């Protein structure tokens, strides 16, 4: 697999998002998750991304049980599930969260540590100072920010260099192209694209609307409720037809498009099972392919917001 820079390391250009190991999108078990991690490593994936809230620590526990030390691991803190759901970026909370994550991960150091959401009333310079001290103490290799605006990135980076920014980015979520991807490129910061397959919308097969109420947040997500869901399935159908005609897998083509948007971009698709990993690689797009794909799926084609209003509370908006 192609390698891309993430901090002072080079990792596989495609990483693995481990949210589903926490049972967020459907039932799983430790053996299945461990088999998925083994298959990912065999496929050349060397970066795994998790968070303390994925299954209330379950995803971290699975990665800790896996025990591979040659894999670059990132985790996150900052979202307090509540009720009420809120965020904390104070140093005491970050340190407490990091120690708990390290125990679950069975590590004394994590390669990359993100603030999952920014707390608006704490200056980002103070947050960067906290993370810089953790780097100096050897607790973390580098730090990242998630769902932030370009101005926030620049302020944090001026205080202590940021390793990575993680925001949602895919064929149907293109907002980061309005300044954030460019800012990362200028500063030498990796842009880690989460949900690059549209939370399953660009999976191997078209989604059915059978999400688990109260567990799978897609059940109430604006893009996955009617009439938006059917409209989005229909909008993506010509892209699926193109992939079939070209002999591409749908996930492979969607990821190839994300990768083509900048050599500092690392998408982290997620899956519960090893079976889906083979769909992610093997597609290379030329300039004409990209033009055609963007004609079929122009920026802004998706119907519905990517989050419900309650989930946008601590997402920075800049356009």
From TrEMBL:
Enumerate the spans annotated as NADP-dependent oxidoreductase domain: 13-296
Name-wise, this protein is Aldo/keto reductase
Keyword list (alphabetical) reads: Oxidoreductase
Species of provenance: Paracoccus aerius
Q: What is the lineage of its organism?
A: Bacteria, Pseudomonadati, Pseudomonadota, Alphaproteobacteria, Rhodobacterales
In terms of InterPro entries, this protein maps to: AKR, Aldo-Keto_reductase, NAD(P)_OxRdtase_dom_sf, NADP_OxRdtase_dom
Q: Does the keyword tRNA processing apply?
A: no
Enumerate the Pfam families for this protein: Aldo_ket_red (PF00248)
**What is the top-level taxon of the source organism?**
Bacteria
């Amino acid at each position: 697999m192609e390698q891309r820079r993430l901090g002072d390391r080079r990792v596989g250009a495609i990483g693995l998002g481990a949210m589903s190991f926490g049972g967020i999108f459907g039932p799983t078990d430790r053996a299945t998750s461990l088999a998925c991690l083994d298959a990912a490593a065999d496929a050349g994936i060397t970066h795994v991304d998790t968070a303390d809230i994925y299954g209330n620590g379950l995803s971290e526990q699975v990665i800790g049980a896996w025990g591979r030390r040659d894999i670059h691991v990132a985790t996150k803190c900052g979202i307090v599930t509540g009720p009420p759901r809120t965020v904390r970026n104070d140093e005491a909370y970050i340190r407490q969260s990091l120690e708990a994550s390290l125990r679950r991960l069975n590590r004394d150091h994590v390669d990359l540590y993100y603030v999952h959401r920014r707390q608006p009333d704490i200056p980002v310079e103070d947050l960067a100072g906290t993370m810089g001290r953790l780097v100096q103490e050897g607790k973390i290799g580098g730090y990242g920010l998630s769902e932030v605006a370009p101005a926030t990135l620049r302020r944090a980076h001026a205080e202590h260099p940021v390793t990575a920014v993680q925001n949602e980015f895919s064929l149907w979520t293109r907002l980061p192209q309005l300044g954030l991807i460019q800012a990362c490129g200028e500063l030498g910061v990796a842009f880690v694209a989460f949900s690059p397959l549209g939370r399953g919308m660009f999976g191997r097969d078209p989604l059915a609307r059978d999400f688990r109420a109260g567990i799978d947040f897609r059940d109430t997500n604006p893009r996955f409720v009617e009439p938006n869901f059917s409209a989005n399935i229909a909008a993506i159908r010509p892209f699926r037809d193109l992939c079939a005609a070209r002999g591409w897998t749908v996930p492979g083509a969607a990821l190839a498009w994300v990768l083509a948007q900048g050599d500092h971009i690392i998408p982290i698709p997620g899956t519960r099972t090893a079976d889906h990993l083979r769909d992610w690689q093997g597609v290379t797009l030329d300039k004409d392919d990209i033009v055609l794909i963007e004609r079929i799926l122009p920026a802004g084609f998706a119907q519905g917001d990517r989050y419900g209003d309650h989930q946008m509370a601590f997402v920075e908006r800049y356009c």
